[in-house]
């Protein structure tokens, strides 16, 4: 798999979906117990790199959504009547 790693795109250059697909393929290959030890280690390392990058992208997206949701909230809650009549 060492030779394959040189042909794989950098994690940063992949779309989120591409990274997720590759991570799924790595998990399936590792679970299948068909890889040699060296291939398993290289696949595991690649999977860890992909997982870290995907988690960072998710966190970044969540922060953006939080900011956007904050922009939609009203400035003041004074206009809302919360008393029980």
Would you kindly provide a brief summary of this structure?
The chain is an all-alpha fold and 85 residues long. Helix content is 68%, strand content 0%. The chain has a domain at 14-71: Orthogonal Bundle (Helix Hairpins).
Features:
85 residues, mainly alpha, Helix Hairpins, disordered N terminus
Question: Layout of helices and strands, plus pairs?
Answer:
Elements: H1 2-7, H2 16-31, H3 37-72
Structural write-up:
By secondary structure, the protein is an all-alpha fold. The protein has a domain at 14-71: Orthogonal Bundle (Helix Hairpins). It is built from three helices and no strands. Helix 2 (16-31) runs antiparallel to helix 3 (37-72).
How can the largest sheet be summarized? none
- What spatial form do the alpha-carbon principal axes imply? elongated
Reported by name, the CATH topology of the domain at 14-71 is Helix Hairpins
The low-confidence runs, each spanning 5 or more residues with pLDDT under 50, are 1-5
In terms of DSSP E residues, the strand content is: under 5%
Structural class: mainly alpha
What kind of oligomer do you see?
A: single chain
Total of DSSP H or I helical runs spanning 4+ residues: 3
CATH architecture of the domain at 14-71: Orthogonal Bundle
Radius of gyration: 22 Å
What is the CA-CA span between the terminal residues?
Answer: 71 Å
What is the H level of CATH, i.e. the homologous superfamily of the domain at 14-71?
Exonuclease VII, small subunit
| Quantity of strands, as a count | 0
Helix content: 55-70%
CATH class of the domain at 14-71: Mainly Alpha
**Average residue-wise pLDDT:** 86
- What's the SSE pattern? HHH
